[in-house]
Amino acid sequence: MNIHHHNIMNNIPVKEDVTSSQSSECDFFSGKWVLDNNSYPLYKDRECKFMSDQLACNKYGRQDLSYQQWRWQPHHCNLPRFNATRMLERLRNKRMVFVGDSLNRGQWVSMICLLDSAIHYPKMKYLNYINDSNLISFKAPGYNASVEFYWAPLLVESNSDHPVKHRLPERIIRSHSIEKHARVWTDADILVFNSYLWWRQPHIKVLWGSFEDKTGIYKDVGMLRSYELALKTWSDWLEIHVNRTRTRLFFMSMSPTHERATEWGALSNDQNCYGETNMIMKEGYTGKGTDPKMMRIIENSINELKTRGLKVEIINITQLSEYRKDGHPSIYRKQWDALTKEQLSNPSSYSDCIHWCLPGVPDVWNELLYAFIFQR
User: Fold this and answer.
1) Catalytic site residues?
2) pTM
3) In b/e form, how buried is each residue of 230-255, taking b as 16+ CB within 10 angstroms?
């Protein structure tokens, strides 16, 4: 992979606008990372009052800030720079909802920090949420715009649906039930889904019946089959209930993890993303945390929906994020539980190599999303 380590803008200019012809002909997902400390980061983490302590790496002690300064450069065209004012105008009188897990929540935080930088009056923006509610909303009253996150890590109903108390020893889904979640977000103008990490175990327990019903039938189902069942339920709901002339639908591909440093050449099995300040240089690198079979299930579900007249666009963040082993919080985040002496002596043991620092990689995901939104 050709990565330019320099402190000046790349020769190819950053475009403010995107034309439909360029977007439709260009593969935004094939490209390289270019150091661009003139234009990035797109916002300051300490200036965004909506920043999550789980993702505020600089606030929690990370000193090297180059992870904030990389721009994604497609090989054959330009990715438009995120224009927050233009995005807010597009969202005027509209509702945008991110639906999924904590990686999608991180992308939502990125989006509202990007928008926050263009709203200069504090009273013109606020968060609206109810304790223990799955839904949290960023409101921009001047635009009558709402950008929301809805917690549903497996999309369908599960025993992990509580927004706080969801770390349970056994994962159970009701693979045919989505209405409890979907009725909250179906009327949105833009829907951005993700669901991947919570499926990553050999078997998921599937419940036929309700969680309250003692006579429900439980069955262990393999990961891929249970994922297929859930996406079928999701697809069927969208086909019947979504307003095709109003709602844009997007699905974020898998966000890679960097939990085994041996995958990119380290000698010790005990290492992960802790201490990593450079990205992976090998073009086309794929780690073992990414499952192509799951990606194919997503693609098949979306292709099937297309034959039924419903368009869902995949934002393929996987390959570009694979390179970014430097972009995770590692130890630089709020620790919700006190660390033990053993953990403190081995920082890799409590490093977060799943989520992403902000500003950082999810801002580029949102630039990709922005490009797709403005295609039409």
Assistant:
1) 102, 352, 355
2) 0.92
3) bbbbbbebbeeebeeeebbbbbbbbb
